[in-house]
């Protein structure tokens, strides 16, 4: 999978590395700001209130 | 085989990032909300229609008081908001609607996160009998002292009764109860800290 992405990138090794880092950063940002806030309510490890 | 390995590594990395988000990312959100709430608390309360000067009811999500616990250091201060639903607890410790107000006869019950959203109640297991819990409202400082710490099941509703442990009994004293999850990173039980009002004075602002 990663090898396939690597082959898809254009340019020399340095340019490929830069593009790969930007892609990884974008993926992390989408996870951090969009996906994680959305799934956070379903992660049940910090319930502070009493519930009958 | 190779794809499986790469997939496994990816899932592992995403899970690690999720843990980092829950512990640090959510704290940043709470810090922002607390800054706004602190400013709101310093402003005089908005007059409610009907003209009552001291509203007995605070609307959900609004700041109620400043909570300080000297054992956790001078910097430990959180604005308590009204309400204990998900949205309110993301902003800071929340006050159970319908329970006593700060200093009032009955039980002033608060809930707060233990590990996420700045984890205001992370260390309340370290509280010992006699420790001060200070609640500053706009015009009065209430000093409660810890009486007891207990670990209970999440359904043990009697801890938030006006007289904790004796639901239905009429309260004669002012108490405070803090609730958070237990053990850390779990929702299996609740850690409860009880306290009793010891003193009330003018806040030295």
How does this structure look, described?
The complex is a heterodimer of chains A (52) and B (205). Chain A is mainly alpha-helical and 52 residues long. Chain A has one domain. Helices cover 65% and strands 0% of the residues of chain A. Chain A is built from two helices and no strands. The longest helix of chain A is centred in the middle third of the chain and has 27 residues, at 13-39. Chain A is rod-shaped and about 60 Å long. With 205 residues, chain B is an alpha+beta fold. Chain B has a single domain, classed as Sortase (Sortase, Chain: A). In chain B, 23% of the residues lie in helices and 29% in strands. Chain B has two helices and eight strands. Chain B has an eight-stranded mixed barrel with strand order 1-2-3-4-7-8-6-5. The longest helix of chain B is centred in the N-terminal third of the chain and has 41 residues, at 2-42. The radius of gyration of chain B is 19 Å and the shape is globular. The N and C termini of chain B lie far apart (66 Å). The model of chain B has no long low-confidence stretch (mean pLDDT 90). The interface between A and B is medium-sized, with 19 and 35 residues.
Entry summary:
The complex is a heterodimer of chains A (52) and B (205). By secondary structure, chain A is mainly α.
Keywords:
heterodimer, A: 52 residues, mainly alpha, B: alpha+beta, Sortase, Chain: A, 8-stranded mixed barrel, 2 helices, 8 strands, 29% strand
């Amino acid at each position: 999978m990663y090898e396939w992405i690597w082959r898809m990138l254009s340019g020399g090794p340095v340019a490929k590395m830069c593009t790969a880092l930007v892609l990884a950063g974008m993926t992390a940002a989408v996870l951090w700001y969009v996906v994680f806030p959305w799934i956070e309510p379903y992660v049940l490890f910090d319930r502070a209130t009493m519930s009958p | 085989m190779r794809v499986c390995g790469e997939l496994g590594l990816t899932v592992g990395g995403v899970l690690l990032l999720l843990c980092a988000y829950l512990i640090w990312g959510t704290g940043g959100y709470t810090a922002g909300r607390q800054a706004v709430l602190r400013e709101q608390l310093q402003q005089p309360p908005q007059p409610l229609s009907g003209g009552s000067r001291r509203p007995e009811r605070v609307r959900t999500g609004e700041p109620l008081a400043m909570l300080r616990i000297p054992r956790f250091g001078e910097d430990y201060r959180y604005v308590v908001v009204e309400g204990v639903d998900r949205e309110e607890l993301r902003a800071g410790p929340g006050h159970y609607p319908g329970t006593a107000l700060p200093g009032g006869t009955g039980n002033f019950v608060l809930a707060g996160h233990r590990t996420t959203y700045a984890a205001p109640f992370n260390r309340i297991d370290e509280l010992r009998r006699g420790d001060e819990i200070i609640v500053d409202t706009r015009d009065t400082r209430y000093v409660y002292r810890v009486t007891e710490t207990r670990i209970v099941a999440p359904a043990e509703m009697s801890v938030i009764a006006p007289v904790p442990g004796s639901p239905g009994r009429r309260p004669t004293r002012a108490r405070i109860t803090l609730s958070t999850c237990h053990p850390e990173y779990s929702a299996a039980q609740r850690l409860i800290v009880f306290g009793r009002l010891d003193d009330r004075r003018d806040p030295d602002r």
